[in-house]
Amino acid sequence: MKRVLVFFVALLISLTASAIDTGAAFEDPEMQARYENLISEVRCLVCQNQTIKDSNVFLAADLRREIRRMMTEGMTDAEIADFLVARYGDFVLYNPRKSGRTLILWITPALLLGIGAFVIVRVVRDRMKMPIDDDALKS
Amino acid sequence: MARYIALIVAFVIMIGIFAVGLDRDPTKLPSPLIDKPAPEYELPRVKDPLSTVGSADYAGQMVLVNIWATWCVGCRAEHDYLLQLAARSEIPIYGINWRDERDAALSWLQQLGDPYVASAYDEDGRVGIDWGVYGAPETFLISAGGSVMYKHVGPMNEATWQGEFMPRIAAQSGATR
Hints:
The structure holds two protein chains of two kinds. Chain A is mainly alpha-helical. Chain A has helices spanning 2-17, 29-39, 58-72, 77-88, 103-129, 134-138. Chain A is built from six helices and no strands. In chain A, α2 (29-39) runs antiparallel to α3 (58-72). Chain A starts with a helix and ends with a helix. Chain B has a five-stranded mixed sheet. Chain B has a two-stranded antiparallel sheet with strand order 1-2. The A-B interface holds A 45-46, 48, 58-59, 62-63, 65-66, 85-91 and B 26-27, 29-33, 99, 124-126, 128-132, 134-135.
C-alpha cells in the first residue's frame, strides 16, 4: 500500500518537474539569470495568461529561441523588449512600459485611490458635523 | 442633489466602459505594425525550395499577405474564400506558410487549390515573429507603398472583406488618384 502511494506521489511530482525549456543553459550564470528573468516577463500570446517561460506552445519556444539569439548577439534587455513590443505590442510585456498608451494603466489605480480617499474624507467630515442623537440608538 | 448627479455620472461611465469591454475579443490583439512599413523577408517557396519569394516580389503593389498552416483549423475554414477572392482577381494574395511541414503544405495546395501568387516557407517561424504573428490565420493588407494598412486575425470571409478590407482599399486608391 505504501509503495503504491509513493509511486503516485512520485508521478505527481514528475509532471511538474518536466522541463518546458529544452534549450541548454547559458554557461555564464549571469546570462542565464538575465534569460530567466526576460522569459518570465514576456507573455505568450497564444495562451495569454502564461509567460513564455511557462508555455510549451511553439510560439513560446520560438520567442525563447529569438531571445537567446539576441542575448548572444549582445543586445541589452531594453533592446530585446523593444524588439518584442515593435512586433507584438505592449501586451507582450507583463510589465508594460510607462509611456503613451499604457500610461492609463499606471495612472488609473492611483486616480481611483485618490477619488476614494476624497469621498471618504467628505463623508466623514459631513458626519462629524451632524448632531449626535442618542435617542436614535435606543429605538 | 449634486452628490446624486455625481453618482449617476460615475455609474453611466462605468456602464460605458463595461459595454465597450464586453464587446471586445481579448484574443484579438491590435497590431503595432499598422501604418508602419511591412516587415521585409525572403524565404524559399513552398513549391520550389530552390527559388525564393518575398516582400520584394510585390513592391509597389497593393497585396494581401496571408499567414497559413496546414495544422490550423481557421485556415481550412477560410481556404475556399481565398480561392474565390483569387478567382475574382481583386488583389494578389501572397502566402506565408508558417511553422508547417513542406509535404503537408504541398498536398494541401494540391488537394484544396492554391489561391496564392506564391507561398513562402517559414519553417522556423522567424519571419512570423517579424510580422507579429501569434495565431494563424492572419491576413495583412499591404499598401502599394509597402506599409501595413490592416491586419485581420481569424478566417477571412465575404463580410470581413466587404466590411474591413474594401473600404480601406477604396480609400487608398482614391487618395493616390
